[in-house]
Design brief:
The chain is an alpha+beta fold. The chain is built from four helices and eleven strands; from the N terminus they run H-E-E-E-H-E-H-E-E-E-H-E-E-E-E. The protein starts with a helix and ends with a strand.
Length: 173
């Protein structure tokens, strides 16, 4: 009898069942999601916003040189980056402020939730109302309303630095 599994090369991705019935693929190149990068025009304001959310500064540095020009395909890049970490230490957000070249404007500058591309960054929070209040104090804007999804979550979307959408989810017990 033909066994397709035996015909696959050892480097071919194959599905296997793991704990809790979850499926994973062997031979994958990904190890983890390292970080998400957000280009901002007000680095201090973005740091304040994400600090109010509960993140901490994990490191910061000016970046420039041939390697950053080559990886971005842009000449003479000069940026300042700040790495923000989630309280559990597993999630990171890179805040990037370009000193050179100038920022490129996109249209519309404040994209609606149904725009193509990266939609939002979601954070699990202890208390949505408290988090919304803290983020509003740092310039965050509630997009719609705080809503309850069944008896599971309280959710909302906020507009954060550089117009990004920050989703907040409070798990209900």
């Amino acid at each position: 009898m033909f066994n397709a599994q035996s015909r696959l090369s050892p480097h071919h991705n194959t599905r296997r069942s793991g704990a809790h019935g979850l499926h994973y693929t062997t031979g994958m190149t990904i190890k983890r999601l390292d970080h998400i990068s957000v280009v901002v025009d007000d680095l201090a304001g973005a740091i304040a916003f994400f600090t109010a959310l509960g993140m901490t500064v994990g490191g910061q540095a000016p970046i420039e040189g041939p390697w950053v020009d080559q990886v971005n395909g842009i000449q003479d890049i000069q940026v300042d980056i700040v790495m923000m970490r989630t309280p559990d230490g597993l999630g990171q957000l890179e805040l990037t402020k370009f000193r050179n070249p100038k920022l490129v404007e996109i249209e519309p500058a404040i994209a609606p939730p149904n725009a193509l591309g990266l939609r939002s960054i979601m954070f699990a929070v202890e208390n949505v109302d408290d988090t919304v209040a803290r983020l509003r104090a740092e310039g965050g804007e509630l997009i719609g309303e705080v809503v309850q999804y069944e008896d599971k979550y309280r959710l909302c979307y906020m507009r954060g630095p550089a117009g990004i959408i920050v989703a907040l989810a409070e798990e209900l017990s």
